[in-house]
Design a protein that fits this description.
This protein is α/β, with parallel strands linked by helices. The protein has 15 helices and 15 strands. It has 3 domains: 227 residues, 3-Layer(aba) Sandwich (Rossmann fold), CATH 3.40.50.620; 106 residues, Anticodon-binding domain of a subclass of class I aminoacyl-tRNA synthetases (Four Helix Bundle (Hemerythrin (Met), subunit A)); 57 residues, no CATH class.
Length: 474
């Protein structure tokens, strides 16, 4: 029987057992980007974190419905569009296309659905009307506000006392509001801004209502996991809770998961502070697997400090695992024995490492410890490959296990090693290895050394082992 998954729930600041609403099904909503620029590394972290959590839940046998939205109607988009003399909706659509280019490079799986605010205006308007009908919304000159003090549990997610709070970063100070903390559900139209018809006149939605409406449409009144960055806890997620639960009377999400910031010199990376690095600029310097592995190198709730040195460490660690993977696949091709004692021992060690990996992920998705288990797997496999006789079944078990665990982390060494070229690279390398072997048999050591040296110059290392010659990329 599988061990339970324990998750840290922001709602009660407690680690607790994960239990789904429906057996073997997970409904999961993760806040996506506001699309007015290319994503930076700080934006990429929750995208990779929650993709990895989703992958692990799937590995554990859950059917995961994963919703990740796009905020394509927002003050920042309108401001950027005015600066570029562009249409806000078209500008947002262009950056959504660029978003997919960036996250595809990080091997992020597409969501079950990627809803856009602009395509769900009726659902948003209906939700605002539901809030008004429930007695929590009021209309002022075409604007609709949420009456925060009427919702007695306001502050339960962020742990804040309403009397001590300041208005959130995206909450306008407006003397027409009944309380300074009340936030906009619907904003009346202003000249030059996109607007839609509503019962309160032309306008557009406030930020928070968008996610409530889209999550409700695709996941229902109550779902399992709501995720996002730590900076969204207040006011965004706090307001989502209030405006949703005042209508449904149910907990919006049973588990709230939030990743920590990426920092630069201990200061949060953000566009507003101007200390951000665009993901695509980082991908010009480091390969995408290195960047993904770096983003998972610490626990998702911990801060992650950015510098090139840390990425270089991740790159070297990844190379060790890639080299092990290549040697394992070469060993599997050469393996001829079956049911050996050494093979049985390898299977036992692989099973133990797989269990350690699962234990790490079961403990609030601890990818740092899971990564350590991957290095342990590489060490056990490398040690086994020193044997003169290799057990095919044991190596196949190791390959299957290693591949499955790497897949959870979003790492595909088979693809990165050139498996997509139908084995052409392997065939060419085997041909060169055979030519070198023939040259050595004919005592033509100059030719054999020339093959080795020229391969080394282009980044390929040959290693002579007891089972024969293997190759790997530097």
């Amino acid at each position: 029987m599988s061990k339970p998954i324990m998750v840290h729930n922001t709602l009660n600041n407690t680690k607790m057992e994960f239990k789904t609403i429906e057996p073997n099904k997970v409904k999961m909503y993760v806040c996506g980007p506001t699309t007015y620029n290319y994503i930076h590394l700080g934006n990429a972290r929750p995208i990779v974190v929650f993709d990895t959590i989703r992958r692990y839940l799937t590995y554990r046998g859950y059917e995961v419905t994963y919703i990740q939205n796009f905020t394509d109607v927002d003050d920042k988009i309108i401001k950027r569009a005015h600066e570029e003399n562009d249409d806000p909706i078209k500008l947002a659509a262009r950056y959504i296309d660029e978003f997919f280019k960036d996250v595809n490079a990080l091997n992020v799986l597409p969501a079950t659905k990627h809803p856009k605010v602009s395509e769900h205006m009726q659902e948003i308007i209906d939700f605002v009307q539901d809030i008004i009908d429930a007695g929590y919304g009021y209309v002022v000159d075409g604007d609709v506000y949420f009456a925060v003090r009427k919702y007695e549990e306001y502050g339960k997610l962020s742990g804040r006392n309403l009397d001590d709070m300041q208005a959130g970063a995206r909450v306008d100070v407006d003397s027409r509001k009944q309380d300074p903390m009340d936030f906009a559900l619907w904003k009346s139209a202003k000249p030059g801004e996109p607007a839609w018809d509503s019962p309160w006149g032309k306008g557009r939605p406030g930020w928070h209502i968008e996610c409530s409406a889209m999550s409700r449409k695709y996941l229902g009144d109550q779902f399992d996991i709501h995720g996002g960055g730590q900076d969204l806890i207040f006011p965004h997620h706090e307001n989502e809770v209030a405006q949703t639960e005042c209508v449904t009377g149910k907990p919006m999400a049973n588990y709230w998961l939030h990743n920590g910031f990426i920092t630069i010199n201990s200061e949060k990376m953000s566009k507003s502070l101007g200390n951000f690095f665009l993901l695509r600029d980082i991908l010009d310097k480091f390969d995408s697997e290195t960047v993904r592995f770096y983003l998972l190198s610490v626990h998702y709730r911990s801060p992650l400090d950015f510098d090139d040195e840390k990425l270089q460490v991740a790159q070297k660690g990844l190379e060790r695992m890639k080299n092990c993977y290549a040697a394992m696949m070469n060993g599997l091709k050469a393996a001829t024995a079956e049911n050996t004692a050494e093979g049985a021992e390898l299977i036992q060690k692989v099973n133990a490492v797989e269990e350690a990996f699962q234990d790490a992920m079961n403990d609030d998705f601890n990818t740092a410890l899971a990564s350590a288990a991957l290095f342990d797997m590489a060490r056990e496999i490398n040690t086994y490959l020193k044997n003169e006789v290799l057990d095919k079944a044991a190596l196949q078990k190791a390959a299957d296990s290693y591949t499955a665990l790497l897949n959870i982390m979003g790492l595909d060494f088979a693809a990165s090693a050139g498996a997509a070229d139908d084995g052409l690279v392997d065939d060419l390398m085997n041909l060169l290895i055979d030519l070198r072997k023939q040259a050595r048999a004919e005592k033509n050591y100059a030719m054999a050394d020339q093959i080795r040296n020229q391969l080394n110059e282009i980044g390929v290392l040959l290693e002579d082992t007891k089972q024969g010659t293997t190759w790997k990329r530097k």
